[in-house]
């Protein structure tokens, strides 16, 4: 225990140096210095790309015009960049305390000041891009972005840590459809599926970091429930998302729909057997990709 206390104290001092722009060693190792690659890595590129590609699929399935689609995708991309950079900057002290050398700010490949400015600039760009899609559509998207920032800055340590994910994902289809002529709302099953997927992604994403989170005072719902329970609940939420996509639309369920439902169940059961590591999150991303294919088919038919 004394060794752990000493390490945290040393990391706290390193945090102060890092936040003041000191280019000396951080978290006990040599820092190679800020790079563009480090800045890009700090934006959480995999989730940001996944959500942006999901928006591309939504705009294509909904029949958005090329200009409208470009605006919507740009708004979502800048929003995701702002959220990712905000997340890494907000987590800097905790990441240093737990020695997260995989994080660019801890490794020194990204500068805290640059990440802060990048997050602010991306957010400033997101506002006019969102509103250019229509006042109501823009307000809906900005509400989702605000929920994500709220998670980063406060809500991740509360029992409602899942809510920003559910809200932000659930509002994404509405952002796309409200930008269409006539500003229609999306069908209930699509909003439900997106919200469930978002909540499930939250649980899957947190699983590898539960121990570090608890050690640094992050007590969201997954941390309170524990590894096994959170893995099971996250899997059920993702399965519910697929079920809403398969069973919600009117008409017969296609063979692809039944196959997807069976494959999702199998993948999530396998991931639940090994909840440690990135497997549950990667399984969730794979399910989301398959769901997108079904979504495009459903909205096009």
Can you summarize this structure?
The protein is mainly α and 301 residues long. It has helices at residues 2-19, 36-41, 45-62, 66-90, 92-97, 104-107, 112-131, 135-153, 162-178, 188-206, 210-215, 221-225, 227-247, 255-273, 279-300.
How are the elements arranged and paired?
Elements: H1 2-19, H2 36-41, H3 45-62, H4 66-90, H5 92-97, H6 104-107, H7 112-131, H8 135-153, H9 162-178, H10 188-206, H11 210-215, H12 221-225, H13 227-247, H14 255-273, H15 279-300
Helix pairs in contact: 3-4, 3-9, 3-15, 4-7, 4-8, 7-8, 8-9, 9-10, 10-13, 10-15, 13-14, 13-15, 14-15
Could you name the key traits of this structure?
75% helix, 0% strand, 301 residues, 15 helices, mainly alpha, globular
């Amino acid at each position: 225990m004394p060794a752990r206390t000493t390490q945290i104290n040393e990391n706290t001092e390193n945090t102060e140096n890092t936040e003041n722009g000191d280019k000396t060693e951080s978290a006990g190792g040599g820092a190679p210095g800020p790079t563009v690659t480090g800045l890009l890595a700090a934006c959480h590129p995999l989730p940001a790309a996944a959500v942006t590609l999901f928006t591309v699929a939504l705009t294509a399935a909904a029949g958005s015009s090329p200009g409208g689609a470009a605006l919507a995708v740009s708004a979502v991309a800048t929003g995701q960049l702002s959220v990712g950079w905000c997340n890494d900057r907000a987590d800097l002290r905790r990441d240093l305390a737990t020695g997260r050398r995989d994080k660019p700010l801890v490794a020194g490949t990204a500068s805290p000041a640059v990440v802060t400015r990048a997050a602010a600039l991306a957010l400033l760009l997101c506002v006019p891009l969102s509103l250019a899609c229509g006042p109501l559509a823009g307000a809906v998207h900005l509400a989702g972005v605000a929920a994500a920032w709220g998670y980063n800055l406060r809500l991740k340590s509360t029992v409602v840590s899942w809510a920003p994910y559910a809200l932000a994902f659930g509002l994404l289809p509405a952002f796309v459809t409200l930008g269409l002529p006539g500003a229609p709302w999306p069908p209930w099953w699509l909003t439900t599926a997106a919200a469930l997927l978002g909540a499930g992604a939250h649980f899957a994403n947190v699983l590898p970091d539960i121990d570090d989170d608890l050690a640094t005072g992050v007590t969201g719902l997954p941390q309170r429930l524990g590894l096994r329970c959170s893995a099971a609940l996250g899997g059920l939420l993702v399965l519910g998302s697929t079920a809403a996509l398969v069973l919600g639309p009117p008409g017969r369920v296609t063979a692809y729909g039944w196959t997807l439902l069976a494959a999702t169940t199998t993948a999530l059961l396998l991931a639940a057997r090994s909840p440690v590591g990135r497997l549950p999150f990667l399984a969730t991303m794979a399910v989301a990709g398959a769901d997108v294919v079904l979504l495009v088919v459903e909205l096009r038919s």
